[in-house]
Automatic annotation (TrEMBL):
Annotated ranges, domain Major facilitator superfamily (MFS) profile: 76-489
Gene transcribed to yield this protein: SVOPL
Gene3D superfamilies the record matches: MFS general substrate transporter like domains
Compartments where found: Membrane
Any one of the GO CC terms: membrane
UniProt-recorded name of the protein: SVOP like
Length: 489
């Protein structure tokens, strides 16, 4: 019993040691299990992260190409293209109103030219400002503001009590019109690449429509109720177009460049739905850390040569375009068609008082408006060839050809010819300078990246307005210094 009891006691003393060993084993097993679980979770986490690395992505450009051309782009083309109608009416307005304000306020040549110059001065200053604001706050907002601005000051112009007020208010209209270029940028950024060379030159139809509309209205309104009502009527299309802007979304490329990917995806999905197309697979990606466009970027070594060349080309094209418009208006207003009869009169020394009198009130006749319409139609005459040249010869070669032909026909304009010959030269010049504008617009919109595209277009538009500012003093003053019918420029 004692031995049995003792043995039990020994057994009972060894039990805690055994339990301690068992606890250690359990603890080690638990630790191993935790380690294995951690490794398993890490492997699972790695497996879950791997699909993220393989997740498909796409950019706005790729989405635009995938969605393709459809009903959205047709609506975009009609609405944004109509901005060209409004801009053409506001710019061409000066050409058809000049004879009347010259007569009403007894203006000199330089005073008439100053009106056009101040319009383009306002355009030049605000092109840069609107370009900077568009890159920072969005294309759509700036486009809307520019239309509201332009319509407001255009209406005020019709109430001008004096020449000074007329010049100031038209300069304010020029400031507003400068923002219309954002419509072209929005249109360019939503168009698939292969359609740009076709659709953007067709936009010239809207500029042509605006030019023809203002000339047609002038032929009816000016002789009846006067130029003030012409300006009021010309403001109506811009006001109507503002109501259609709600159907046009903000640029998806702009939204992505500012980090607003959600808005960009919603816009692209809306376009895909309208076009009955599909979005590309994956998630929308784009660098959101890129610095917003600055003027110094245009002078960076990467873009310096391109920027300088583009600015010079814009200046030359603008000078040629507005020069031929204003010169043709002066030719018609002063009946300065070089003919054998006028040359003979000059040889005979026709120095009568009438031949040297100021032509303050020589208003356009119905035949003059018809000639202006014919020459204006020339702006679309070369559009088919221009489209083919842009798409098959390329932007640069096509531009070189049309600019060379423009210079040639300006030389032809110095030839003594009949009224029919003059109309033919003006017709071809309008066609060529319009083709120049089509090509340089496309090239400029494509050559700069998204973050500085609006700024690039804005500065190019501003520099080209220098040419437009100089043109009136060459076409309306220097070249037409007196009213003698035998004097040619």
């Amino acid at each position: 019993m004692h031995c049995a009891f003792t043995g039990w006691k020994v057994k009972s003393k060894s039990s805690p040691l055994s339990s301690l060993g068992t606890q250690r084993e359990l603890k080690m097993a638990t630790q191993q299990k935790e380690v294995s679980n951690a490794i398993g979770l890490e492997e699972i986490g790695t497996e879950r992260q791997e699909p993220k690395k393989e997740q498909k992505t796409f950019t706005v450009e790729e989405a635009v190409e995938t969605i393709g051309f459809g009903r959205f782009h047709i609506a975009l083309f009609l609405i944004m293209g109509s901005t060209g109608v409004v801009e053409a009416m506001e710019i061409m307005l000066i050409a058809v109103v000049s004879p009347l304000i010259r007569c009403e306020w007894q203006l000199s040549d330089w005073q008439v030219a100053l009106v056009t110059t101040m319009v383009f001065f306002g355009y030049m200053i605000f092109s840069i400002l609107f370009g900077l604001l568009a890159d920072r706050y969005g294309r759509w907002k700036i486009l809307l503001i520019s239309f509201l601005w332009g319509a407001y000051f255009s209406l005020l112009t019709s109430f001008s009590p004096s020449y000074i007020w007329f010049v100031f208010l038209r300069a304010m209209v020029g400031c507003g019109v400068s923002g219309h270029a954002q419509g072209l940028i929005i249109k360019t950024e939503f168009l698939p690449t292969k359609y740009r060379g076709y659709m953007l030159p067709l936009s010239q139809v809207f500029w042509l429509a605006g030019s023809l509309l203002i000339i047609g209205l002038a032929s009816v309104v000016n002789p009846t109720i006067g130029w003030r009502w012409l300006i009021r009527i010309a403001s109506v299309p811009g006001i109507i177009l503002i109501l259609a802007f709600k159907f046009i979304p903000e640029s998806a490329r702009y939204n992505v460049s500012t980090g607003n990917n959600k808005a960009a995806v919603e816009t692209l999905e809306r376009i895909a739905k309208m076009n009955r197309s599909v979005m590309p697979e994956g998630i929308l990606v784009e660098s959101v850390n890129e610095r917003r466009g600055r003027f110094s970027d245009l002078l960076d070594s990467k873009y310096l040569r391109t920027s300088l060349q583009i600015w010079i080309i814009w200046l030359g094209i603008s000078f040629a375009y507005y020069g031929v418009i204003l010169a043709s208006a002066e030719l018609l207003e002063r009946d300065m068609v070089c003919s054998l009869q006028t040359a003979a009169a000059a040889e005979l020394g026709d120095d009568s008082e009438e031949s040297h009198s100021p032509c303050h009130c020589r208003l356009f006749a119905p035949s003059d408006y018809r000639i202006m319409i014919i020459s204006t139609i020339g702006e679309i005459a070369l559009n088919p060839l221009n489209i083919l040249g842009i798409n098959f010869l390329g932007r640069r070669l096509s531009l070189s050809i049309t600019m060379g032909c423009t210079a040639l026909f300006f030389l032809f304009l110095n030839i003594c010819t009949t009224s029919t010959g003059l109309i033919g030269f003006l017709f071809m010049l309008r066609a060529l300078v319009a083709a120049n504008f089509n090509t340089i617009y496309i090239y400029t919109a494509e050559v700069y990246p998204t973050t500085m595209r609006a700024l690039g277009m804005g500065t190019s538009g501003s520099l080209c307005r220098i040419g437009a500012m100089v043109a009136p003093f060459i076409a309306q003053v220097r070249c037409f210094s007196c009213c003698h019918p035998a004097i040619r420029w």
